[in-house]
Amino acid sequence: MPMSIIKNTAFYALVVVIVVCAVFPFYYAIITSFRTGSAIFTIEYWPTSFSVANYVNVIAAGSFARNLLNSIIVSACVVTLSLLMAVTAAFALSRVRFRGRSLLLLTILSVSMFPQIAVLAGLFEIIRLLGLYNTLGGLIFSYMIFTLPFTVWVLTTFMRDLPVEIEEAAIVDGATPWVIVTRVFLPLMWPALATTGLLAFIAAWNEFLFALTFTSSTETRTVPVTIALFTGSSAHEVPWGIVMAASVIVTVPLVVLVLIFQRKIISGLTAGGVKG
Amino acid sequence: MTASPTVRSELLRQRSRSARLFLLPMILALAIVAGWPLLRTIYFSFTDASLTNIDAAKWVGFKNYLSWIQLKSGRTIYSGLLVDPAWWNAVWNTVRFSVISVSVEAIFGMIIALVLNAEFKGRGIVRAAILIPWAIPTIVSARMWGWMLNDQFGILNDLFMRVGLIDHPIAWTASSDTAMIAVLIVDVWKTTPFMALLILAGLQMIPGDIYEAARIDGVHPVKQFFRITLPLVKPALMVAIIFRLLDAMRIFDLIYVLTPNSAQTKTMSVLARENLIDFDKFAYGSAQSTLLFLIIALMTMLAIWIGRVKLDGGER
Q1: Mind listing the domains of chain A with CATH numbers?
Q2: Which of B53-57, B80-84, B100-104, B202-206 has the lowest mean pLDDT?
Q3: Smallest Cβ distance to A145: which of B14, B34, B202?
Q4: For the domain that residue B284 is a member of, what is the CATH number?
């Protein structure tokens, strides 16, 4: 059956093209990060040299380690705060009937579609007013605008799909809504919380516009800003080896997490999209 | 329910009271970080506020949007955002970028989704591989591609010259002809996976026996795609396209890092931030932000209307 062999070969050729296109840029960043000196300016498709000098330089020089810590602190705080507020809100939005619920859900969905630039001027004013300018607090504060609607939305769709029976016993026993949320729903929700939290963490970790605008010193920056602003002595002397080493450091943890939780992430992403 | 009506209604009252309490922190938080700043941005767009002295802002009406003076000769000179060529250039760039990138992503996303929907050895590897571009921060991908697209040492020029696509190195990000292409390449690479996963979720909801029946009837696979797959996956595809379109309209970080000084790629968000923060035209930047917000708000309303997004909160 030569026809099916041709078909199979074509199919696998397509598969190879997809995989190579998806992976190659990251692969190339990794091999570049292990090259130093003039070796970096000879184009090689395979890893030919191995030097950790770029990694040593990026950790030792400047405030990269500090920025990495900033990113971790900001993302972790944002995720915790969003989830705390989202769990109770999602319970109310998914399990209780009240007037204006559709309108509220619509508003939440619209806020997640907000162009960040539309609130930049107003946020700038309020952050300066609260004395949060150039602090991590200012970033945590402003990041709520995209993590909170997202977590509320995903947790609402998740809680909506839980059967009504699980609540009934608790209601008959006279449990208050607070007890129902904390004792009945929360234990069931750990997988959903982990997925939503991870997606919100990635969003906060990657955020750039607010981090760029609301910080002014190198010590309060998060890693995306540091990586974006790495420059050499002139515009034509970008320290590519160091930039690639820094990029690999901030990306590897994300890639590992995403690959471990890939099934959960895919269902979490599509819950926000298709079902929504 | 065995409970008496009064107990039941008391329970319901308690439930809706708690619901209000449960929603309060979230609503307050959103009002402070989203609602209030948005109103202030709109307010600033009608003032002469400057970055260094926001408090001294005075109301100037529509001056930032459009104003005119009549010269003695009878000629009228217009000024303001609505007659600013830089603004309309940014609008055009944003629209061009959004339409092209989302169209290309929809096609590639559909191809990848169809591949992932087939049964074959190594499917898990492909799925894992396409998640990598999605997981990489936008700034990092801008930097990675900036290096690959470098005019002298970039691997893409080398690759394209080896296979004979180009005969001399191209300054992808710096040249005005190719800056937009460079941005599009990176954006398509980065966001096609998201599109593919959303389309794949739609494909997996199509029952397999439809294809079975089509195969028995001898329907050609290409015809199957256009007559069965495409109509059935259309709702999921539309949602994915709308999500991505709204997202593309507000693009900032990729362009800010990859092609910082190119007028060919300056989008509304990039231009607005430049005015707000770098040029000390806070009020003018606010007016641009407000217009971008209005455009996206209109698009969102249209999207909800077209996409018929379910908002009733389900049956329960």
Answers
A1: 2-51 (no CATH), 62-230+253-275 (1.10.3720.10)
A2: B53-57
A3: B34
A4: 1.10.3720.10
